[in-house]
Amino acid sequence: MGEPGTKEVLSLDELDAVAGLRTGRKHILSILVENKPGVLTRIAGLFARRGFNIDTLAVGPTDDDSVSRVTLTLDGAVHPIDQVTKQLHKLVNVLKIRDLEPEETLARELALFKISADGAGRAEVMQVCEIFRAKIVDVTKRSVICEVTGTHAKVEAFERLVRPFGLIEMARTGEIAISRGRSET
Amino acid sequence: MRAVDALMECLKAEGVDVVFGLPGGANLPTYDAFYDAGIRHILVRHEAGGGHAAEGYAKATGKVGVSLGTSGPGATNLVTPICDAMMDSVPVVFITGQVRTELLGTDGFQEADTIGITMPIVKHSFMIQHPLELPRSIHEAFHIARTGRPGPVVVDIPQDLSRADIPYEPVTDVHLPGYQPTTDGNQKQIRLAAKALANSRRPVIYAGGGVISANAGAELTELGLADNFPVTCTLMGLGGFPAPHEQWLGMLGMHGTRAANYAMDEADLIVAIGARFDDRITGKLSEFAPRAKFIHIDVDPAEISKNVPAHIPIVGDAKNILPRLTAEYRALEPDPARLEEWWSRIRVWQERHPLGYEDSKDAEIKPQYMIQALYEATKGDAIVTSDVGQHQMWTAQYFHFNQPRRWINSGGLGTMGFGLPAAMGAKVGCPDQTVVCIAGDGSVQMNMQELATCAQEGIAIKVFIMNNGYLGMVRQWQELFWDKRYSQVETGQWPDFVKVAEAYGATGMRFEDKNTLVSDMQEALATEGPVFVDVRVTREENTYPMIPAGQAARDMVG
Question: Which residue range(s) make up the domain with A111?
Answer without folding.
Answer: 106-179
